[in-house]
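Today's session is about reading a structure prediction critically. Students often jump straight to the picture, but the first step is always the sequence itself: look for stretches that repeat, for charged clusters, for runs of hydrophobic residues. Only then move on to the predicted structure, which in these notes is written as discrete structure tokens rather than atom positions. Here is the chain we will use throughout the hour.
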Amino acid sequence: MVGLRVKGQPLGDRAIRRRRGDRAIRRLRSQVGKRRSIARHGRLRRPNAFLAVLRVLSVATVVVLISCLAVGSIAVAQLATNIDTVALAGEGMPDEVIPDAPALGSFEGGFNLLVVGSDVCDVEGGCPDREAELNDVTMLVHVSDDHTSAVAVSIPRDLVVPIPACPMEDGSGSYPAISAQAINTTLGYGGLACTVLTVEQLTGLDIPYAGLITFSGVIHMSTAVGGVPVCIDGPIDDRYSGFRRDEAGEYTLAGQDALNFLRTRHGVGDGSDLGRISSQQVFLSSLVRTIKSDSTLTDITKLYGLAQAATSNMQLSSYLAPLNTMVSMALVLKDIPLERITFVQYPGTTEEGGVYAGKVAPITDQADALFARIAADDSFTLEGNTGVGSTLNPNAPVQASSAPSDAVDAPAPATPSATAAPSMPAAPSAPADAGAEVLTGVLGQTAADYTCSRAN
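Below is the predicted structure for this chain, in token form.
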């Protein structure tokens, strides 16, 4: 998942030089013919109030997905270490509208945050199976203006989209626009700023905040939280990601095992990236419930471990890095009920040809309807299909939704024989707003829905 911090060299060039066999990135680079320069980084100082803020975050840190988890916990780690930052496109321009840094705990209005997961090789000795840095995960998180709901949109890595002209990191020019390319090439092409610009153009939303996390970050953070309970409805053996389970059941995943599960594609659903997204949402909804439980929010050791893991493996946009901004975001996310935290897939299909052959084509009318509601903060519900890679857990607790409280009990581990999935996905739990409009064709679930990954 997200970008490696390599001091003294630009991230994309290092990855591309290492992996000359990657034809997609090489083709993109050949249009430019210039090497990228060092990204602008800032270093944040370490105040002395570490323990005081740690206590604040012990009741404040809750997130809607892996990277949001990092965002909340990073606020602690800023007090103990340095954070790498990177400027997004337009920052520092004369006509720039700079977001006001909130007073501690008083974030005003809603916000959009892009979470990018990089598959860059960050292990000693290299990774022969990966040839270039790609954004393996791209998720847009929107929190409503009144702080009562959040939506996390997973954008398929294989979604073919136009890529706008992206600024070079030294400000000397721009990489040229591309009419149609898989969105997962944007990170290697123009860095985090290019991925943000592409998603802004795709969704019509302004994104002032972004964070990049590496595979190592996912490994260390899932371990720091004590593992995440995940249900699967049958045996999975994915030799590509390395995830294997011999039978159905509920498993607590941490470390490399958690990363392998999040990356599994061939072992779930129909083997497509769309199936992987719905399987990932099984993990993310369980992660939110884990973070909102007392066992995490009152455990200073866990919170500190999350903070340390995040700071060692993340790069943040300039406006996300300040302490007040991140702590205030965490406080907002803390109070959103589980049934008002919704995970959705960007509407797409794998059944188109031409430029979309072997990739994902956007379903424009469904996407337009989704982002119109997100932009207007209009509530909506889903039809009940969680996606081809997941199904409702038949052993879910009777009450799978939450009131606005900090504690939600996790389900008891299911026996393998009891977790066999129904033939079709069951409808998720009742929405918090029964009068909300149903979005036709949009797949996903809420954090209140207990689901199982569907083995193929």
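Discussion point for the tutorial: The first helix runs from residue 11 to 18.
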